[in-house]
């Protein structure tokens, strides 16, 4: 990936956002996330090994698995940021466009770059929540195909925009670049949409999980 920027303008946060955007442009990471969810939730059901947790309540099992997946995502983002910081301060700051600053000189730009990183995180949380619901109702291959289509849809709508695009957290990125007010609205919109998805999908999944035959 080539970086085109003015001299001394790429801060750590801006560089991390660039790297995250580059990774997100590939579909494979999202499909890997769906596969991970299937392995955590569906595999034990198909292999009839859920009885191993018979001493635990089903609600406790469900939330342990779900929160474990979310923790995995957060850890990944933490490691990604740490790796980006290492590369930034070892290599990038020695290039003409590199800056040793953590944030951009403009508060609005900093909020926009941070939002983009948060939006990718929210997108993954949404994907995990959706995959959790899908894998308990559909076959594994159907879940993967649906995940592929949803991922493609989010990528396209994030570029095209429009009212429908506001249903996904990554589509608020252009709004986040429209000054402080735009950034504030983007944070509220993306977080609010993700919370709604999480509440709906976890409620559906928890109900289904409760009725599974162990």
TrEMBL record:
Domain of life: Bacteria
Transmembrane regions: 26-45, 66-90, 110-138, 145-168, 180-200
Keyword Membrane: yes
Key words of the record: Membrane, Transmembrane, Transmembrane helix
Protein's name in the database: Sugar ABC transporter permease
Organism: Streptococcus suis
